[in-house]
UniProtKB/TrEMBL annotation:
SUPFAM superfamilies: Nudix. Keywords: Hydrolase. It comes from the Bacteria. InterPro entries: NUDIX_hydrolase-like_dom_sf, NUDIX_hydrolase_CS, NUDIX_hydrolase_dom. Pfam families: NUDIX (PF00293). It comes from Streptomyces pulveraceus. Residues 28-164 form the Nudix hydrolase domain. PROSITE patterns: NUDIX, NUDIX_BOX. Its cofactor is Mg(2+). This is NUDIX domain-containing protein. PANTHER family: GDP-MANNOSE MANNOSYL HYDROLASE, MUTT_NUDIX FAMILY PROTEIN. Coiled coil: none annotated.
Length: 363
């Protein structure tokens, strides 16, 4: 081992073990671990604590001689009273010494924070939560878009980056002060930064019953590899399926609406749409129809006159797509109908893979 020479200098004498250890100790960082837990609606578990104004994900400091995974499991037990195994990493965040204005007396040298996937907790496991008699005053499951309002800016960036990494299914991501060093399309578009539209309506595998007005027609549009087309609003990061409202030119035919709106919103041309079913808003009695179809051609998307920008088109597995919407428990029934239609269309089940942007055709 040798000391690092200054530019232009000759290499210095070999360093002793003691000198090398002291050199590395001067660059030592703190280590922390946190756990991202969601409920079946895709809302994130946060903790309210009595020692700071902002909320936190479950987690804390890694003790001396302890691995980050062991620390994550220990913290979940100490803070929530639930046994957990931290065996899947979502993010590793390098937090700089000057990132959040730590007081000089803290002598904060910077930190490496490991974020683990705590999974989706069903109601029975949530009911097992037992808070300690100190520090943790309450827990809450919140919409991802609320994280910047409830957590510190750095913690919110880290949590959203980890959540997008979980959806993207591409392994753990490397962060610097909460931001990915290699942003994915979900990061670039700021997906989940705005609240997902809440539509917890029952799913029906049937045509609209007589007397209901079909006010929306949307399609699960399949690529040849079994992924589906999702539109992302550039101004808000909100996701939607291609489709829209019926018009007089459709003459009451919802398939005509889907053909027209798929072309207008996604520049996609379809073949032989299959009716999947519908969801009904019980308050307004408005009906939202869902179809499935393979798209046969993709053109250049139109610019939205309101924003002067075109929606970004991405390809995602059906499972990834449902995580971008807040459709409640009935989303599972709709997803099952989507896969039945995919099978009927003779398309493969998409393998887990990152969400990708659909490029515009050239030439």
């Amino acid at each position: 081992m040798t000391a690092a020479p200054a530019p232009g200098d000759q290499p210095s004498r070999p360093m002793s073990d003691e000198e090398y250890g002291a050199l590395r100790a001067r660059a030592a960082l703190w280590a922390g671990a946190s756990v991202l837990i969601t409920n079946p609606l895709g809302k994130v578990l946060i903790q309210r604590v009595d020692y700071r104004d902002t909320c936190l994900l479950p987690g804390g400091a890694v003790d001396a001689g302890e691995s980050p995974a062991d620390a994550a499991a220990r913290e979940v037990m100490e803070e929530l009273g639930v046994a957990a195994v931290a065996d899947r990493g979502l993010a590793v965040d390098w937090v700089s010494a000057d990132s959040f204005g730590a007081p000089p007396s803290m002598r904060f040298p910077g930190e490496i924070v490991h974020v683990f996937d705590g999974g989706t907790w069903e109601d029975d496991r949530i009911a097992e939560i037992r808070l300690p008699g100190h520090e943790i005053t309450a827990i809450e499951f919140v919409e991802p878009a609320r994280l910047p309002d409830l957590l510190s800016p750095a913690d919110a960036r880290r949590a959203l980056s980890a959540l997008r990494a979980r959806i993207n299914a591409a392994g753990a991501v490397l962060l610097e002060n909460g931001l990915p060093i290699a942003p994915t399309v979900l990061d670039r578009l700021g997906v989940l930064r705005s609240a997902r539209a809440e539509h917890h309506y029952p799913w029906r595998d049937a045509p609209s019953p007589h007397g209901l007005t079909a006010t929306q027609v949307h399609g699960w549009l399949f690529a040849p590899d079994g992924r589906v087309l999702v539109l992302i609003e550039p101004e808000t990061g909100a996701a939607r399926l291609p489709g829209g409202m019926p018009g007089t030119q459709d003459h009451g035919d919802p398939r005509s609406t889907l053909y027209r709106e798929a072309e207008r919103t996604a520049a996609a041309r379809l073949e032989a749409p299959l009716l999947l079913g519908h969801v009904t808003n019980p308050r307004t009695r408005h009906d939202h129809l869902r179809y499935a179809a393979a798209f046969t051609d993709i053109g250049v998307p139109r610019t939205d006159p309101a924003t002067d920008r075109a929606r970004t088109r991405v390809l995602a597995t059906p499972e990834q797509a449902t995580q971008l919407f807040d459709w409640g428990v009935p989303a599972a029934d709709q997803l099952a109908a989507v896969h039945r239609a995919r099978h009927h269309l003779g398309l493969p089940r998409a393998v887990p893979q990152p969400v990708t942007e659909l490029p515009c055709p050239t030439g």
